[in-house]
Every structure is written in C-alpha cells, then in structure tokens.
Amino acid sequence: MARVRIKKGRRKRARPDGGRKPAKSGRFFSRGKSLQAIAEEKAGRKFLNCEVLNSYYAGETGDTRYYEVILLDRNSSRVKSDRFYLQIINSKGRAQRGLSSTGRKYRGYAR
Fold first, then answer.
1. Is the pTM above the cut of 0.85?
2. In principle, which of 15, 40, 56, 108 could form an S-S bond with 95, CB 3.0–4.6 Å?
3. Could you read off the pLDDT of 13-31 as tens digits, one per residue?
4. Distance spanning both ends of the chain, measured CA to CA
5. 48 contacts: CB under 8 Å, gap ≥ 6
6. CATH architecture group of domain 2-17+26-106
C-alpha cells in the first residue's frame, strides 16, 4: 500500500519564446487522464518490485489530492500461489499501460 500525493488543478505549460502569435499560446490545459490514474503511474514507477492492483481516494487539502494505491509484491509466495494475482504480476507496467480500472476509464472502456 502506498499513499501518493498529486497536485490538483489543470496542467500549466510555459509560454514559448518568440516567433508565435501570443493569442494561440494558451497556458492551461486539461489533463487527458484522471489524477487517480496519474497517482497509480507514479506509484508504479517508484516501487519497481511491485505491480499496481488498484487505488482509491484517501483525502485532499487545498492544493493536493491523496490516493492510496494497492500494490502486489512480485516476490511474495502468497501472491505467486494465487492464479488471479499471478496473472497480474506477470504483466509488467499495468498502470503505465492503462490496464488498471482507472486506466481503463480514461482509455474509453466501461467498467
């Protein structure tokens, strides 16, 4: 289990230097994926020996949102003995490829 902190709000991009029409250089862009999906990817990159199973909302402050990400240890004998979990730990980078439940939502798949 890992608690992940994500900054709230839209993505801010730096203004380009010269050579462009200023009106076309918007600074704020909405994200293509949810903050929860970003939190799962962040946890998957941090804990290389684990695989992301799922996540849930844990709370928020004024500028930060927290999610708790459920991780499976690849080396655990208990996880290896379960057929369902064995299938999950054999597929590497599930969160980065959008295969968790949150990732499937932003890719356009129903629950």
1. no
2. 40
3. 777 776 777 776 667 777 8
4. 23
5. none
6. 3-Layer(aba) Sandwich (3.40)
